[in-house]
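Q: My labmate handed me this sequence with no annotations at all. I'd like to see what the chain might look like in three dimensions before we decide whether it's worth expressing. Could you predict it?
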Amino acid sequence: MIKTIFCAIYLVISMIFLVPFGLIAFFLYLIGLRKSMRLVMYKIAQGWGFSLIKISGCKITVSGKENIPRKDGVCFISNHDSYFDIVLLLAYCGRPFGFIAKKELAFVPFLNMWIYMLGGLFIDRKNIRKAVVTINKGAKRIKAGGGMIIFPEGHRSKGRGLLPFHPGSLKLATMARAPIIPVAIKDSSEALEKHGRVIGAKAGISFLPQIDTASLPSEDRKQILCDKIYQAISDELNHANVQNETAANEC
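A: Here is what I predict for the chain of 251 residues:
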């Protein structure tokens, strides 16, 4: 419970402290300094993520960072175990990225500004026409050299294992024709959702080898890509489970 209180206090204090700076950065962003402000905001968000992980007491295992391209467009596709996933990605991804957020978050003060400046987009899933426009914007950002993250499960699994992917969610990746980095996040729900409070749990994040979308056959590309990414993430999560069971037996 103490860690939960500390994390809550840190969240409130960090938000209060960053609001004035965020407003200034947002103004500079709007008048044309988009690239530099996006990088500055990402560095701040990355530091915030590391700090929150430290305060939570979580022990994070990270692998595969060498698979992340330092430049050019890239699409990260990750499983979604908990709210803590965004914190892990901010801390360890190593480059700015945006993500597709539900439209309701566009009305959350301050949070909407950060999502926007980090390159995020808000999608109205109930309006197909508007959703297509949002996906097109995301694809253009990747083609322009940016990074985007997709959670194809559609919602958090909360420790229930890898849920089925929605093939339609990968449209952004297929349109951009950019390299895909599958991301396997393990046990992040142990840090928050499972117990209803912050726990200093052990979690892991693995950046898997790139998948080249351009080399896939045009026929059924979306389904082939969906199956390939799902299998890669599933294999990594299963491998982590085997390692944990082996370590437990040795103890």
